[in-house]
Automatic annotation (TrEMBL):
Annotated Gene3D superfamilies: Periplasmic binding protein-like II
The protein's name: Nitrate ABC transporter substrate-binding protein
Gene Ontology BP, a term: thiamine biosynthetic process
Top-level taxon of origin: Bacteria
UniProt source species: Pandoraea captiosa
Organismal lineage: Bacteria, Pseudomonadati, Pseudomonadota, Betaproteobacteria, Burkholderiales
Classification via InterPro entries: NMT1/THI5 (IPR027939), SsuA/THI5 (IPR015168)
Residue span, SsuA/THI5-like domain: 69-278
Transmembrane annotation, as ranges: none
């Protein structure tokens, strides 16, 4: 396989065990300009004279400024976590697989990944599962430059693609896309660019396309480059962004997980119902987007139309889809064998339909 790391300076701090990775993650959160949100819950509790909030460490698969995390940031800024008695500490690590590994090791309470992630991790002895799904459609999009004439997966032969990292689920989705075109990883060059390089390489022409979040495509378009978007489930089975937790945490502290899921689903459904209003609330809450209302509105509207809608309750996993995705991973030899489907997710924390 032609794979190349392309980590641009400042994208990621080297992650180390124990306090090192936690401190590095906190610096990354601070650099993403969302620190103002982190103190909101504590202030609310003090102002209202309520009981102290329970501190919860939530691991993000990328810097918190990514718009994929809008449901989390809006739930925080609107006080939904505080209303549930929670104070959230956000820590960024390097991809969804890393989130799961850290949670299983006890270095965090809950985290963000894809619904696919437990399929990969549990087959390797990392016991985490999905506790809520952020949307009925895949988070990852297959985004290609319009001038590279990529009409179908088979057109990728000899091309270059970018993903965030080789540990991130976007890489595994890329393998599925290649398989849909009867190609393998040896037929393409894959760059791991980090959260900035992944889209910058497409904008500069170094890469022909990327597999990643809708906002990365929008960032490429901001540079004047036209791109085509394709939901990845048109080519390979996949799931949306998910909240995940370790088996141990689910057993020992289900109340905290239920509270976090309830607050997050409330924010997600608000985005789906009115992305314009949600975008205004988001730019007011996140200083780094204060002058980017049009950009945020474009991206959140995409999420509201193409990612969040589901025929099930908000957050609910469909066991048939989970099974289909896992079978695809086994067929493509991403994992050696299938795990019991019920071990990969739980719907016990999904709020009842209103």
């Amino acid at each position: 396989m032609n794979v190349k790391r392309n980590m641009k300076r400042g994208d990621w701090t080297a992650w180390k065990g124990g306090k090192g990775w936690m401190a590095a993650g906190w610096r990354l959160c601070r650099e993403a300009c969302v620190v103002g949100l982190l103190g909101l819950s504590a202030w609310s509790a003090q102002a209202q004279g309520t009981a102290p909030l329970k501190e919860v460490t939530f691991l993000l698969a990328a810097p918190p400024g990514e718009l994929a995390f809008a449901p989390f940031m809006l739930a925080q800024s609107k006080g939904y976590y505080a209303q549930e008695g929670l104070k959230i500490r956000w820590i960024a690590v390097h991809g969804g697989a890393a989130v799961g590994k850290q949670l299983a090791a006890g270095n965090g309470d809950i985290g963000d990944a894809l619904g696919d992630t437990p399929i990969v991790l549990r087959s390797n002895g990392v016991n985490v599962k999905g506790v809520a799904l952020l949307g009925g459609h895949p988070l990852h999009q297959f985004i290609t430059r319009a001038d590279r004439n990529i009409a179908q997966a088979s057109d990728l032969k000899g091309k270059t693609l970018s993903v965030m990292s080789y540990e991130d689920t976007s890489y595994y989705v890329t393998l599925g896309i290649l398989a849909a075109g009867k190609l393998s990883k040896s037929d393409v060059t894959i760059y791991a660019g980090g959260p900035n390089g992944v889209w910058q390489d497409v904008a500069s022409g170094r890469s022909d396309g990327l597999v990643g979040t809708p906002e990365w495509g929008a960032r490429v378009e901001e540079t004047g480059v036209k791109v085509h978007y394709r939901p990845t489930d048109q080519l390979t089975p996949g799931m949306g962004q998910a909240i995940i937790a370790s088996d141990k945490k689910i057993a020992s502290d289900p109340q905290t997980i239920a509270k976090f899921v309830r607050a997050t689903m409330k924010a997600m459904t608000e985005i789906e119902a009115d992305p314009v209003a949600a975008s205004k609330a988001y730019v007011s809450a996140v200083p780094s987007y204060a002058d980017k209302l049009d950009f945020v509105t474009k991206v959140l509207t995409y999420y509201a139309k193409y990612v969040f809608p589901s025929r099930l309750r908000p957050g609910e996993f469909d066991p048939a889809i989970v099974s289909h995705v896992q079978n695809s991973y086994v067929d493509k030899k991403v994992v050696r064998s299938a795990q019991p489907v019920e071990s990969l997710y739980t719907n016990q924390f999904i709020p009842a339909a209103q």
